[in-house]
Amino acid sequence: MSQDAESLVLIDEKGQIIDGERLLALFALLGLRSTKNGIIAVPVTSPSVIDRIAHECQGKVIRTKTDGRSLMHTAQLGEKKILFAGQNGAFIFPSFHPVFDGMFAFAKLLEMMAHQKTKLSEVLQHIPPFHVAETTIDCAWQRKGRVMRRMIEESRDRPVEMIDGVKAYFDGGWVLLNPDPSEPILHLYVEGQSEAQAQELLGEYTQKVLQMVNGEVAEDGGGEKKTARRERRRSNRPGQVSQVTEDGAAVPYERSFHFWAPGRYLGIRAESFKDFVNTLHYIDEESLEYHFERGDFSNWIEYELRNSALADKIRKIHDKNPRGEQLRAELLKAVR
To answer: In this structure, are residues 100 and 108 in contact, taking their beta carbons and an 8 Å threshold?
Structure first.
């Protein structure tokens, strides 16, 4: 346990150390096996193996920003639907309370292992390999905006998500560039199908970002002004400006969908259709009914996302007069 008992590291019966993303994958596998149609929340930096596990277990993954506050906020809003939220060995089980709690996470681990009659080493064997690497790059505050715009332009021919920073997808991998909110640095994360591919992507994009930071043209190579530091590796071993995908295309802040309950703002907004669908999975029934009865969902989809056909489909749900979980099911059926 960490000193504050918020996070933990496991050692299985064979002496293998289980921490970081590997520990997150283990909790995802155990948790989604034990809960039908379970939902978990993880940061946008977590490896794609989490999505593969969820797909195989018929579960759902909600991606959040990288800070702990976003995970806590999402877990709190989805306390009746989200099984857990986790990152870096720390887990929130919102049905208990919406904060990181290593002791409770360990108790839940023992419970899930007992119900499934399994050992940690056996669970690890069912986690596919993944290869993630990261580094940080010095960047003056006044240059961060320019670099992020350049990253969007650089990724214009690839599927992109902008949940937190700019995340561009490749065949079998992705690259994420995320500006630090409190220091003059940029965080660069990559995932590849192998350790070699991950390191190749990391090296390639480190050079590209350095060129953006230093204002150099691509041909220069940027070799004289390298400022990347603190490289780390994490592996498991035994749209229109940016041509983003349709469901990931971001809209401006003022056109985002802001979720309310009667008389209070819930502090969460959908900046893309994918964000919107993800939030429908876990947002409180009170908020669903509030927006549905006002026609907010259909209006936003028609006027902000320019999808009249889907807006009409959602309006027809009114004829069924659904409430609560039935309303959630009807909305998810329509947007699928």
So the answer is: no
